Amino acid sequence: MTISAWHLAFADEVPEEPVAVADQYLELLSRLYFHIDRPTPDHVDWRVRADASRADLESSDACWLDTGGRRYLRAYVGDDSHPPESMVQLAVLLPLLERSEWQGGEADPLIASLRDLLETFQDDRTGMIARWLPSAEGLLKGEEEHERPRVMDSWYLFHPLLNLARLAERGDDRAREQLLGSLDRVIEIAHHFNHEWPVFYDLDTLEVIKAESEPGKGGELDVPGLYAHVMLQAFELTHEQRYLDEALAAARALQGKSFELAYETNTVAFGMVALQRLSKATGDPQWLGLSRVLAACVLDNVGFWSIRYGSGSTRSTFCAVFPMPGAPYTAAYEEAEVAAAAVTYLAEADTVADSLAVLFPELIRHVTAKLDAYYPQHISEKWLADTPKTGHIETDRWIPVEDVGDGFAEAGTVGQEVYGAGIAFSTVARACIRIHESDVLISCEYPFELTGTTAKEVRLRLYGDGRLKSRVRVQFPGSDGKPGEWQDHWLAGGQEVGIPLSPGAEAHT
User: Fold this and answer.
1) Element (DSSP H or E) covering residue 429
2) Which of 174-183, 430-439, 481-490 has the highest mean pLDDT?
3) Of 400, 434, 468, which marks where a domain is finished?
């Protein structure tokens, strides 16, 4: 019985500068990737998952909290101990918008109702969008250090702003106003901390409450990348130089650091995208190199192995993205955000390092499949937590649990995350193509760029490396008009392919 197996790659040089270290790490990791056991991911019909999640989200009263005459999404199913959070509303709203656009602009009344809640989070004391609903802050009990009315967890300041910017990019003038109205105070805070953020601080006085994640390791070192992301979004919306200057100042705060930059893996992934965009905006290649440092931080927190014991033997575990360094579990929302950021990074790149052309499409392929393992319907009662930390678990709802741990650990110990309901909506929009005229559905494991559609075929440019293949599945309507069987095409990465829109025909390059 093999208890442990290691793969080693050797290099002739030991680099010291962070970009060179990252590039060597990525190159060696991509080389080893071809030598490890790589399972074939299960296919998930994300259109079915998205429909089920959408229905359960609205029909379950445990997902909603009524306060001030309005109905807000809770963070966790059955959670009565926290006020509504802006991040939660936006974390479901944006994926719902993506799904609506994927469906051809079909109206969804939940989009409008969630959208109308955002102004209620405006905090007149700071001029910014707040984390907690200001009128309901009294619900906070302070059981954890960051769950107090005026305490800010640094990354949390920027996540709602990032999604407000995404709304503004879609032409939402109210979101644009709320975003830009928040940024003056945000910039003041950034200058106060010299673009290097502590873990927790007082939102009004800026007094540091918790300076470091661990003694000697600094604060949330990856937040400058997230800040740069928001500033670049503001720059694209307004073309005001000061926002680009802020992004540059934040990027400089990342220089000279290496793997210690990872605090939250999804935050690192947003920074990775931001640094790539900054390189394009300025024409300076040093920021592209720094984006690869952040890519290395992401991939350093990925488990390239399969668990074959306990609950791990019945679910997909390969390419597990851990939410933080040393975390003993994976988290649904964070994995979905990392996969989405990797798609964006590939789609926006002028050129991609050979190592990332191997690793990112494979990461996306496997994470997309393993997200299905977070739904309680797929978790044995034996391995599902009876008493989660927050709220309760409704096992018949297509709402994911937050956490899945080691094969012998319970799942859902934190709770069933309502804000994670969006993973189905964003995943179907990212991984599937819907041909509305014929009701054909195309599902791609690798990320892709749609390059053309005719009556006979859909043309795609698949990202990836030509030495690896992934599955493209096509579902044609049956004779009764309902979705029929799937037809599989196994295609190499890095090429443009034609996917025929008639049953039985073969895909071609």
Assistant:
1) helix 422-431
2) 174-183
3) 434
CB neighbours of residue 185 within 10 Å:
16
Cα distance between residue 19 and residue 151, in whole Å: 35
Which runs of consecutive H residues, i.e. helices, occur in 68-129?
A: 86-102, 109-115
* DSSP output for 125-158: TTTEE-SB-GGGGGG---SSTT-STTEEEHHHHH
Q: What is the mean pLDDT of residues 16-40?
A: 97
pLDDT tens-place string over residues 145-199: 778 889 999 999 999 999 999 999 999 999 999 999 999 999 999 999 999 999 9
- Take residue 132 and report the two structure tokens written for it: 């907690």
Q: If pLDDT is split at 50, 70 and 90, which confidence band does 3 have?
A: confident
Residue 370 has pLDDT above 90, yes or no: yes
**Do 277 and 348 touch, CB atoms closer than 8 A?**
yes
Query: For strand 457-462 and strand 432-435, is the pairing parallel, antiparallel, or unpaired?
Result: unpaired
In terms of residue numbers, what domain contains 399? 38-81+301-434
Hey, what amino acid is at 322?
F
Q: How far apart are CA 76 and CA 150, in angstroms?
A: 21
DSSP state of 113: H
Cα atoms found within 13 Å of the Cα of residue 423, Cβ hemisphere only = 29
Q: Cβ(230)–Cβ(164) under 8 Å?
A: no
445 and 390 share one domain? no
d(CA 337, CA 260): 20
- Look up residue 11 and give its two tokens: 């290099």
Query: What is the number of structural domains in the chain?
Result: 2
Q: What is the pLDDT of residues 214-273, one digit of tens each?
A: 899 999 999 999 999 999 999 999 999 999 999 999 999 999 999 999 999 999 999 999
Is residue 477 situated within a structural domain?
Answer: yes
265: which 2 tokens?
Answer: 């893996």
CA angle 280, 292, 238 (to 5 degrees): 30
Whether residue 462 is found in the same domain as residue 358: no
Tell me which amino acid residue 472 is: V
Check: CB of residue 147 under 8 Å from CB of residue 140. Answer: yes
Shared domain for 453 and 358, answered yes or no, is: no
**153, amino acid identity:** D
Cβ contact 199:220 at 8 Å: yes
Per-residue tokens: 453? 């559609």
Predicted local confidence at residue 325, as pLDDT: 94
3-state helix, strand, coil in the chain (%, to 5): 45, 15, 40
Spell out the residues 6+ positions from residue 49 whose beta carbon is closer than 8 angstroms to its own. Answer: 372, 375, 398, 424, 427, 428
Domain boundary among 376, 403, 434: 434
Q: Could you tell me which of 38, 20, 24, 23 has the C-alpha nearest to residue 363?
A: 38
